[in-house]
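FW: tagging you since you asked about this chain on Friday. Here's the raw sequence from the shared folder, copied in full. Didn't touch anything.
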Amino acid sequence: MDIIYIIKLIEKSIFTENNIYKDLEINWIFTDDLSVEYKKYNEKYGRNQRFTDNDYNGIVIPPKNIKEPFNILIDNKELDNFGKDYMLFCTVYHELTHAVDFYKYCKLFFNGNYDEMLKSNEYYAFYIWTEFNAKKKSYIFYRKYLPMAFGNKEDLINLEVPKKNKMLEEVIDSTNHVELIYTITHYLARYMVWENLFYDDFKDFKYVPDKLKKIMGSNLKKFYIFFKKNKYLPKDKAKYNLLLDIIKSINLEITLDEVKKINNEVSYE
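HL: got it, structure written out here
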């Protein structure tokens, strides 16, 4: 199987769907060490974003402006595992969704200047929005084209849901606010897919862990509904400020100064 050919087909499909075919060029980089490549490209662009966690499967690195090729790093372990779980295609879809979101957001609000985008106060809220969007779309893609990997509804409820809930609870118990919001975002994006597939079984947060309900309180519903109402890229900056307000209201406090600090630390997985 020609993996690059399939990646290019996925790329063309996503770009055509978003009406940016031939507008956005991707620089695909396959590497044994994401952190090394990430550092190299960020130094090339004069940025100080940090990244030390090689557990990710892929990362995006925006260039200086939207006219330059957009960089996507893929860990070589995805190629090594190809044929076992096909997660490579899920990762490709996820990172391409980020690339499209970055391109459209930057063009809309920052005249195509990625550096200006990354320094903005609203960037962290956009980052959370695109994480939700990318996780939801890539998970739908994965389930659609590899249904044999998921089984029936009973398998989902009895196997996948408990596994994801346990992973979320472990993060709640052990991590910082930034990583927690990231993990919650991915979890709820996946949960929204479950709810869309089997509404009666998953409505009203039936399978959401009590720990998550406790730390988010009423913000759980606000956070979730925000993404239901904004499944397409918000074109009003006020929407990003609203999302930021919800995030700041979660039990783990976060200030504007911390958001600015996050903007310098966050990786674009």
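FW: The two ends are 26 Å apart (CA to CA).
HL: agreed, and The longest strand covers residues 26-31.
FW: great, closing this out.
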